[in-house]
Structures are given as structure tokens and as C-alpha cells.
TrEMBL record:
The keyword Acyltransferase does not apply. CDD domains: CYP86A (cd11064). Transmembrane segments: none annotated. Its cofactor is heme. GO terms for biological process: lipid metabolic process. Belongs to the cytochrome P450 family. Heme binds at C452. GO terms for molecular function: heme binding; iron ion binding; monooxygenase activity; oxidoreductase activity, acting on paired donors, with incorporation or reduction of molecular oxygen. Keywords: Heme, Iron, Metal-binding, Monooxygenase, Oxidoreductase. PROSITE patterns: CYTOCHROME_P450. This is Cytochrome P450, E-class, group I. It comes from the Eukaryota. It comes from Parasponia andersonii (Sponia andersonii).
Length: 513
């Protein structure tokens, strides 16, 4: 036995020495890593042991690492000469998202992970294919007609589904998962925007409730498993599963074909009907360009559904959790809403138009502050096309994985000051008016040419929901003092949801109706 150990040692020793020298001397830029504070990169295995140890609290761990680096930027490497850099420094973020945008596409690594599901839709493409979709979409997103369409959909969903559901919950004392409710709301909404189909996930009959629920479940599964590919320590694992069509990859294939079948049916029937001027949705707007094949139309639509699905629900779930332990903030929101109602002659239950929503400065500040601490997209990744140097002096090699961490940026003293951990909406106000933050310091909606297209729509949706819920109901979070855990996915979802009970709010004049 001892002889065997000695033999193994003698065999392994030269191999280890060889690998050590190979990794350390075959890469001329490597010395950057050892000089860098930050991620612990071991010989050969790189950051992998630390990553595996901290995977369950990835965001807190990487925030702490970035905070300890002089320029809030850290390099790591993984086996097989795979290098990456993560930053929480606004000047680096501006460089990668705007100044040297062409050098930082999403890259093949990202695109191949989501490719089976999203094809080459706007969310999953680079270069000319992306530019083309971006041009059409940004033109359409700026039209008044699309904005009105969105506002109308949100109003109907709130009045006919969300409010009745919460009223029912308040009467019967149900415990609701608020995160799930908000996700269903967002899914109904984004499907209407994408191809004017109402899946009726939050109640009602929709355009076919059973089909809608099936579509949402398949979409959910396809998105979760596709995004799960990002978190494999060794990407070859999911590729092998895919090759043999086993495990999660097998269910992924099934759910993707269900989503594609569903979307194809709608697209085919719309194409057969030729141009239907009564439609206002995105599909109608992209069909207008005759050059788009049905498959490409499907990719475009699915990308939009993915982008608009979990983001607003994530933002609002964390917002309602934060609010539950801050009655002072809630009171200020209520005061602001009351002032707007008095000025416009409205009563509780009336809906708010775009102008009134725009006047809700304090509510906007509170939602932004919540997204600063809990950004719906906590980490964003790119791939470098060529060698480059960040403005802070960090070398970035060709084909490196390049990430900015919005979660960490919201918690950097260098950006937000010593009270950065505190939930303080006032930091967004100047003489009572909401003040936009520089998007490279607050890249929650991304920034530069690829900035989120749905920012305004998301804002309308979030403020409408928050205002309607807060003025009508008291939301009691069951465990308001424990910070919920999150699920590591592309969006920041709460682990286990947000269980709440609901009470119709009592006002000085009694309970409203
Ligand atoms: C609070 C809500 C939202 C947040 C925080 C948010 C954030 C983001 C972020 C960080 C990106 C960049 C993603 C990446 O690089 O991979 C993005 C892109 C995008 N978002 Fe949003 N988003 C929100 C809501 C929406 C909504 C409601 C829509 C509308 C359907 C939407 C449509 C898009 C699209 C189409 C892109 C891709 C833009 C491009 O690549 O050119 N987003 N969003």
C-alpha cells in the first residue's frame, strides 16, 4: 500500500510540476493574476475551489472580493486556460458597455448556452443580427401607440385580476406567494405585448386558460434549465447530457419544443391572416418587415418574453419585502399618492395615467433604491474579442469572460458612500424630485447601446402595481426580518418565494371599497 502511494506520488509529482509551469509560463499575461488582490487563484485549478465553496452565496462572496480590491476589479481563471475578469467599477463598466462596446459582445459562449431556446433573438445575438432587431424594436418601443397598449394592458390586469385576487386573499386569510403572483402578472403582460396572446396566468379565462398555463410552465422550465447551464463548474457536463439526451437536458428539449410549437402556431395564423391592422403588439410590428422568416419571428418574440418576464416581478418582490419592515417609507408613498389624488380629483380605485405615474417621485425613488440593493439582473457577462486594457489599468485578454456585477455595485462605498447598505430612498431625490443616476454607476438596466429596451415599460408597470397595491392593501410579510435567500439564475429570484397575508387597508374614513 505504501509502495503504491510512493509510486503514485512519483508519477503525479512531475505531472503537477509540468502543469504548473505550463499554466504559469505559457501565458505571458499571467503575472497580472498574482499581483491582483481579490479572487484566490490556485495553480492549475484556479478559482474553482473557492467558487465551489462559495457558490451558494456567490453574490455576497464576489461583492466582498471586489470590495477588497483597490479598483473593485478582480481577475480569475479556471482550468483549461479559461480567464475572466469581474468588475464593480463604473469607469470600467462605461468602457465595456459604451466606449469600447465593439470589443465586448455577448460572445459565442453565452449565445451557445441560450441558443437552443432563444435562437438568435435580440437577447441572444451580436453584430448585424442584433443591430437589425434593435433598430426595429427601439423605434417601436418609442411609439406612443405601443406605450398606450402597455398602459391599457397593465390597467386591465390590475383591475380585473390582481386586485380581485388580493381582495379574495384578504377575505379568506390565505397565505399567498407574492413572488409567484407577480410573476404570473408579468407573464400575462409580456405575452400580450409580444404577440397579443393572453395566457390568463393570474386568473380569468385568458385566450385559452389551459393552453396559457401550459405555455407558462414550459417557458419556465426552458428558461430555468437553459440558464442553469451557466452554473455548471464544467460546461462539458451539460454538453454531454445534451448529446445523450438525458437528465435536465432531456426535459429542456421537451419544454423548448412545447414553447416553439405554441409560438409557431400563433405566428403561422397571424401570417395567414396577412397584416391585421387591429393588432398593436410586437409581432405585428416585426411581421411588417417581410424579410423575417417565421423561425426568426419566433426567436424575436421569445427573446422579448424572456427579457420582460422575471425582471419586473423580481424587482417588486424585493421591494415589497423591504417595505414590510419600513412603515416610514410606506407612509411617505401613501402621502404622495394622496397628494396626486387630491390634485387630480381621483379616488382610490381609479387608475393612474402615464403623467400621474411620472409625478410619483418618491415611489420611483423607493423602487430604484430597492433595485440598487437587489438588482433583478445581478450579474451581466460579455466576452472580449481582442486584448484590451480597462481604464483602471486591468489587462483583459482576448476571449476572456468579462462581467460587471450590478449587485456588488449597489453595495460599494466608493459609489454610494458609507451608508450603502441602508435602504434610503431619499438618496435619489433632489429638492423632492427624482434624480436619474448615471447608468454606468447604476447599470441595473444595463447601459450604452444595449441598454434595456423595456425600461420605461417596466417602470410604468412597477409603479402602477405598487401604487394600486399599497393604497388598497396592507401586505404582511410572514418573516420580514430575515433577509430571504436567492436562487442563482439570470434574474434574482427569492428562494421559496415571498409568503404574505393581505389585509384591506383601513383608512381614516373606514375601509375603502
Ligand atoms: C425591472 C425590470 C427590468 C430590468 C431591471 C431589466 C434589465 C435589463 C438588463 C440588465 C438588460 C441587459 C441584459 C444582457 O445584457 O444580457 C436588459 C436587456 C433587455 N431588456 Fe430589460 N429589464 C427589465 C424589464 C424589461 C421589460 C419589461 C422588457 C420588455 C419586454 C425588457 C426588454 C429588454 C430587451 C429586449 C433587452 C435586450 C436589449 C438588447 O440586447 O439590445 N426589459 N434588460
Amino acid at each position: 500500500m505504501e509502495l503504491l502511494s510512493l509510486q503514485s506520488f512519483l508519477i503525479l509529482l512531475p505531472i503537477s510540476i509540468y502543469l504548473f509551469y505550463y499554466y504559469y509560463h505559457s501565458e505571458p499575461k499571467r503575472p497580472q493574476i498574482s499581483r491582483q488582490t481579490g479572487f484566490k487563484n490556485y495553480p492549475i485549478v484556479g478559482v474553482l475551489p473557492e467558487f465551489l465553496k462559495n457558490r451558494h452565496k456567490f453574490l455576497q462572496w464576489s461583492t466582498q472580493v471586489l470590495g477588497s480590491c483597490p479598483t473593485n476589479t478582480a481577475i480569475f481563471f479556471r482550468p483549461y486556460k479559461f480567464y475572466g475578469v469581474m468588475t464593480a467599477n463604473p469607469i470600467n463598466v462605461e468602457h465595456m458597455l459604451k466606449t469600447n462596446f465593439e470589443n465586448y459582445p455577448k460572445g459565442d459562449r453565452f449565445i451557445s448556452m441560450l441558443g437552443d431556446f432563444l435562437g438568435r433573438g435580440i437577447f441572444n445575438s451580436d453584430g448585424d443580427l442584433w443591430k437589425l432587431q434593435r433598430k426595429t424594436a427601439s423605434h417601436e418601443f418609442n411609439t406612443k401607440s405601443l406605450r398606450n397598449f402597455v398602459v391599457q394592458n397593465v390597467i386591465v390586469e390590475i383591475k380585473t385580476r390582481l386586485v380581485p385576487l388580493l381582495e379574495q386573499a384578504s377575505k379568506s386569510g390565505w397565505v399567498l406567494d407574492l413572488q409567484e403572483v407577480l410573476e404570473r402578472f408579468a407573464f400575462d403582460n409580456v405575452c400580450k405585448l409580444a404577440f397579443n396572446f393572453d395566457p390568463g396566468c393570474l386568473g380569468g379565462h385568458g385566450d385559452g386558460a389551459a393552453a396559457g398555463a401550459e405555455f407558462m410552465a414550459a417557458f419556465e422550465e426552458a428558461a430555468t434549465v437553459s440558464c442553469g447551464r451557466f452554473f455548471y463548474a464544467f460546461p462539458s457536463l451539460w454538453k454531454t447530457k445534451k448529446f445523450f439526451n438525458i437528465g435536465s437536458e432531456r426535459s429542456l428539449r421537451k419544454s423548448i419544443s412545447a414553447v416553439h410549437r405554441f409560438a409557431d402556431n400563433i405566428i403561422q395564423s397571424r401570417l395567414k391572416a396577412k397584416v391585421d391592422e387591429s393588432q398593436e403588439d410586437l409581432l405585428f410590428r416585426f411581421i411588417g418587415n417581410n424579410e423575417n422568416s417565421p423561425e426568426f419571428l419566433r426567436d424575436i418574440i421569445i427573446s422579448f418574453i424572456l427579457a420582460g418576464r422575471d425582471t419586473t416581478s423580481s424587482a417588486l418582490t424585493w421591494f415589497f419585502w423591504l417595505l414590510s419592515s419600513r412603515p416610514d417609507v410606506r407612509e411617505k408613498i401613501l402621502k404622495e399618492l394622496e397628494a396626486i389624488r387630491v390634485r387630480t380629483g381621483k379616488t382610490i380605485g381609479d387608475t393612474y395615467g402615464v403623467d400621474e405615474l411620472r409625478d410619483m417621485d418618491y415611489l420611483q425613488a423607493a423602487i430604484s433604491e430597492s433595485m440598487r440593493l437587489y438588482p433583478p439582473v445581478p450579474v451581466d457577462t460579455k466576452e472580449s474579442l481582442n486584448d484590451d486594457v480597462f481604464p483602471d489599468g486591468t489587462f483583459v485578454g482576448k476571449n476572456w469572460l468579462v462581467m460587471y456585477q450590478a449587485y456588488a455595485m449597489g453595495r460599494m462605498k466608493s459609489i454610494w458612500g458609507n451608508d450603502c447598505e441602508e435602504f434610503r430612498p431619499e438618496r435619489w431625490l433632489e429638492n423632492g424630485a427624482f434624480r436619474q443616476e448615471n447608468p454606468f454607476r447604476f447599470p441595473v438596466f444595463h447601459a450604452g447601446p444595449r441598454m434595456c429596451l423595456g425600461k420605461d415599460m417596466a417602470t410604468i408597470q412597477m409603479k402602477s402595481i405598487a401604487a394600486s397595491v399599497i393604497e388598497r392593501f396592507d401586505i404582511d410579510v410572514r418573516d420580514k426580518l430575515t433577509c430571504p435567500d436567492y436562487v442563482m439564475a439570470l434574474t434574482l429570484r427569492m428562494k421559496g418565494g415571498l409568503p404574505v397575508t393581505v389585509r384591506v387597508r383601513e383608512r381614516s374614513g373606514g375601509v375603502h371599497n
